[in-house]
From TrEMBL:
<dbReference type="InterPro" id="IPR016163">
    <property type="entry name" value="Ald_DH_C"/>
</dbReference>
<dbReference type="Pfam" id="PF00171">
    <property type="entry name" value="Aldedh"/>
</dbReference>
<protein>
    <submittedName>
        <fullName>Succinate-semialdehyde dehydrogenase [NADP(+)] GabD</fullName>
        <ecNumber>1.2.1.79</ecNumber>
    </submittedName>
</protein>
<dbReference type="InterPro" id="IPR015590">
    <property type="entry name" value="Aldehyde_DH_dom"/>
</dbReference>
<dbReference type="GO" id="GO:0004777">
    <property type="term" value="F:succinate-semialdehyde dehydrogenase (NAD+) activity"/>
</dbReference>
<dbReference type="InterPro" id="IPR016160">
    <property type="entry name" value="Ald_DH_CS_CYS"/>
</dbReference>
<dbReference type="InterPro" id="IPR016162">
    <property type="entry name" value="Ald_DH_N"/>
</dbReference>
<keyword id="KW-0560">Oxidoreductase</keyword>
<dbReference type="GO" id="GO:0036243">
    <property type="term" value="F:succinate-semialdehyde dehydrogenase (NADP+) activity"/>
</dbReference>
<dbReference type="GO" id="GO:0005829">
    <property type="term" value="C:cytosol"/>
</dbReference>
<dbReference type="GO" id="GO:0009450">
    <property type="term" value="P:gamma-aminobutyric acid catabolic process"/>
</dbReference>
<dbReference type="InterPro" id="IPR010102">
    <property type="entry name" value="Succ_semiAld_DH"/>
</dbReference>
<dbReference type="InterPro" id="IPR016161">
    <property type="entry name" value="Ald_DH/histidinol_DH"/>
</dbReference>
<feature type="active site">
    <location>
        <position position="254"/>
    </location>
</feature>
<dbReference type="InterPro" id="IPR050740">
    <property type="entry name" value="Aldehyde_DH_Superfamily"/>
</dbReference>
<comment type="similarity">
    <text>Belongs to the aldehyde dehydrogenase family.</text>
</comment>
<dbReference type="InterPro" id="IPR029510">
    <property type="entry name" value="Ald_DH_CS_GLU"/>
</dbReference>
Length: 483
């Protein structure tokens, strides 16, 4: 399985053409599993971004004017071109991001599902006629694409985070300028390659890389951009939302989480342990919906800890994501490893017990062992700050009310999970949790057909599902008089 170098596109994509940064400067991209260099990307700033926005603005009227079916045809062709190279694209994704190859394939396939879903959903952008209070007038409500959409995306899902924004934008008739994360640019730039291949009209999709704050400022301040869609940290989301607000642009924000995972006395513990593995250790703990705090009821605390420990030993293998059987790739960079190590040390300093893991394995690359700590308490960093790595910390609780209170005791509100059998309890807890996504006896719940969005400081708006088009559309009321 070697990297197909034709897919390592080291230029940006503006108005249907490949380009370097105006300054000629580049940024290096490396493989987190080995530390080896993969290539470089252009270090663009405001001027290149402004050109990309101008191209998207120029392409907008013709793209908007196409029928939904014609846009869907382009989108399905784009998906076919991605699926034709699934193996190679998965190797590329694993090489720049680190996740195991099977997860990389799963991510790209999910990205395609988002685009195909929206391609069809675009045919169902219905309007309304409203009974008129005037005998001689009629009221018509239609929906129109907002215009140029600018997107900024993170490194942990370098394909699918883009796909679900791109799918919604293209289907609704918007054009797009996107900026992927510096660590994982190539999985984004491949969309330029496939756009070229299928003959997507120039300017409909543009991709810039480089100086994130400068690119973000141009996106927020350029009058042609009508919407900013961002997935990333709450810190950067707040910066962008404030700047977009000054210029009255629509925003969608998918931000950080601090997901609780509650195991009640009546839970199926085997199911809970397996769900915990999937929810906590997928992508080595680097997803914004990863379980971060495990609240386990006193009666099953020891039994659950034992089951989770065994499941970790049986199911988790650390290594280069390109190797067979590996489930835990490297973390994205050195800073990520240091954060996990700091959370583990803090937990142990404050009275936690190390059950398994806790160290960097003795190998090159930014790895950290899957780690289980019991005896966690609310004063620990892991209780309030997303670890974004392979640390499972188990907290003990006694009553249902206590669990709900602890789970909601955070400024975040993205995903949460709980395991219980009693139907009344399931409904009570489901309704009491202040989260946008609730997994009841399930540890992984993302799908293109369901909405994805956070409460509180985890964000604004929803992606995926029939709701995912709303943010890309303006509602227009027309009054037809003199009838
Ligand atoms: P993470 O912790 O996942 O890296 P970030 O919020 O830092 O989260 O990064 C998510 C995306 O936001 C990346 O594409 C990154 O380049 C971009 N980004 C970071 N800082 C800024 C900024 N000041 N303005 C615009 N984009 C930014």
């Amino acid at each position: 399985m070697s990297l197909n170098s034709a897919l390592v596109k080291q230029q940006v994509y503006i108005n249907g053409a490949w380009a370097d940064a105006d300054s000629g400067q580049t940024i290096a991209v490396s493989n987190p599993a080995t530390g080896e260099s993969i290539g470089t990307i252009p270090y663009c700033g405001r001027s290149e971004t402004a050109r990309a926005i101008a191209a998207a603005e120029a392409a907008f009227p013709a793209w908007k004017a196409l029928t939904a079916e014609a846009r869907a045809d382009f989108m399905h062709k784009l998906c076919d071109a991605v699926m034709d190279q699934l193996e190679d694209l998965a190797v590329l994704l694993t090489t720049e991001m680190g996740k195991p190859l099977a997860e990389a394939k799963g991510e790209i396939t999910l990205g395609v599902k988002y685009i195909r879903f929206f391609a069809e959903e675009g045919k169902r952008i219905y309007g309304d006629t409203i009974p008129s209070p005037w005998a001689d007038r009629r009221i018509l409500v239609t929906k129109e694409p907002v215009g140029v959409v600018a997107s900024i995306t993170p490194w942990n899902f370098p394909n699918s985070m883009i796909a679900r924004k791109l799918g919604a934008a293209l289907a609704s008739g918007c054009t797009m300028v996107m900026k992927p994360a510096e660590f994982t640019p190539y999985s984004a730039l491949i969309y330029g390659l496939v756009a070229d291949k299928i003959g997507l009209p120039a300017g409909v999709l543009n991709i810039v890389t480089g100086d994130a704050p400068a690119i973000g400022e141009e996106m927020c301040e350029n009058p042609a951009v009508r919407k900013i869609t961002f997935t990333g940290s709450t810190r950067v989301g707040k910066l962008l939302a404030a700047n977009a607000g000054k210029n009255m642009k629509k925003i969608s924000m998918e931000l950080g989480g601090n997901a609780p995972f509650i195991v009640f006395d009546d839970a199926d513990l085997d199911r809970a342990a397996n769900g915990a593995i999937a929810s906590k250790f997928r992508n080595s703990g680097q997803t914004c919906v990863c379980a971060n705090r495990f609240y386990v009821q006193a009666g099953v605390y020891d039994a659950f800890a034992e089951k989770l420990k065994s499941a970790m030993a049986e199911q988790l293998t650390v290594g280069n994501g390109l190797e067979d059987g590996v489930t835990q790739g490297p973390l994205i960079n050195e800073a990520a490893v240091e954060k996990v190590a700091a959370h583990v040390q803090d937990a142990l300093d404050k009275g936690g017990t190390l059950v398994t893991g806790g160290h960097r394995p003795d190998r090159t690359g930014t790895y950290f062992e899957p780690t289980l700590v019991t005896g966690a308490s609310q004063d620990m960093k892991v209780a309030h700050d997303e670890t974004f790595g392979p640390l499972a910390a188990l907290f003990k609780f006694d009553t249902e009310d206590e669990a709900i209170k602890l789970a909601n005791d955070t400024e975040y509100g993205l995903a949460c999970y709980f395991y219980a059998q009693d139907l009344g309890r399931c409904f009570r807890v489901m309704e009491a949790l202040q989260y946008g996504l609730v997994g009841v006896n399930e540890g992984v719940i993302t799908t293109e057909v369901a909405p994805f969005g956070g409460f509180k400081e985890s964000g604004i708006g929803n992606e995926g599902s029939k709701y995912g088009l709303d943010d890309y559309l303006n509602i227009k009321y027309s009054c037809l008089g003199g009838l």
